Amino acid sequence: MIQVIGYAANQAKAQLTPYSFERREPKEHDILIDIQYCGICHTDIHQVNNEWGGSTYPMVPGHEIVGIVSKVGSKVTKYKIGDKVGVGCFVDSCRTCTPCKNGLEQYCTNGMVTTYNGVEKDGTATQGGYSSKITVDENYVLKIPDNMSLDRTAPLLCAGITLYSPLMHWKAGPGKKIAIIGLGGLGHMGVKIAHALGAEVSVLSHSLRKLPDGKKMGADHFYATSDPETFVKLQGYFDLIVSTVSTDFDLNQFLNLLTLDGTMVQVGLPEKETTMNFASLIGNRRSLSGSLIGGIKETQEMLNFCSQNNIASDIEIISIQEIGEAYKRILNSDVRYRFVIDIKSLQ
Ligand code: NAP
Ligand code: ZN
Ligand code: ZN
After folding, report:
1. Is the CB of 184 under 6 A from ligand 1?
2. How far apart are CA 327 and CA 65, in angstroms?
3. Buried-exposed string 259-283: b where 16+ CB fall within 10 A, e elsewhere
4. I need a surface site. Which of 62, 87, 90, 261 has the fewest CB within 10 A?
5. Could you tell me the pTM of the whole model?
């Protein structure tokens, strides 16, 4: 076994503290990755706090992992020692169901094996990227293009793909009016990707505080949701709205901003259930949908797209010891725009 150091929560809502554990030696198709950086997703906070139920402890969060291959199993063909690689939100799936066969492993009928707070097929609890090393099957690893910096690429492994996938599925592009609700980790990647796809992009944010940043990221328009006038003047305007909001909010207000046949896609997952008025859907034949990260094939496509379009995350690098403060700032919508842990700080 391989000795690993990390930071873990030992119970719900606990502060993260140093934690030593073991990873498996690479099997035939596994690679060992020396982790360099790990992004902090709002999901890490939901999971540590057991807001969605089913959290298990000790929990080492982190599913925006980038690093360097340091060991390969005897039958590995895709990677070699020294390669720059990434790992996102899952590390395995059944590989036989229809979604798995179609590259949609995130919707695996038998349940994907999540990178942390999950269980490997051999029964081992999975532990995430706030740690020094990880062993992963090569089929669940992403190649990081040479021109991309590791630290600014880490958030693409969850935030990037979570926005790329619905933007592609609902065909964001020239002539389409897209709104992104919430300019946080997910939202800022959505603005950059939708802009690169050629769509008209609007940000719907609490206030106008983040307006200059949003414009630099490629937003054409920026509106404050605290201003009631926003909901009057934008009524029936958007073809697609992607909501990254992580707390409960008034869904109907936003549905009313969709044009004929427009779609609102929810990717943020608040703790509480929300209510809606069907009249918001019936008028303008609107649709409400959801979307979960993206499969391995699409995640690689997203990384290649970002590499070609010079897209990276806007980050603040922190040491692992600053994790508590970073979580507080995320909860206050004060992240600019993703915290990334420098894993060297674990030593
Ligand atoms: P984040 O960085 O905290 O960003 C969320 C943004 O939502 C905030 O920056 C804020 O933007 C806005 N917001 C927060 N509270 C709000 C409120 N009360 N009212 C209105 N807007 C509010 O979080 P994230 O990492 O982007 O994650 C967002 C959500 O997506 C989380 O629930 C996370 O678990 C979920 N998620 C889902 C998937 C998926 O596959 N579906 C993947 C990853 C994460 P403004 O300041 O601009 O208003
Ligand atoms: Zn995430
Ligand atoms: Zn499957």
Report:
1. yes
2. 18
3. beebbbbbbbebeeeeeeeeebbee
4. 261
5. 0.97
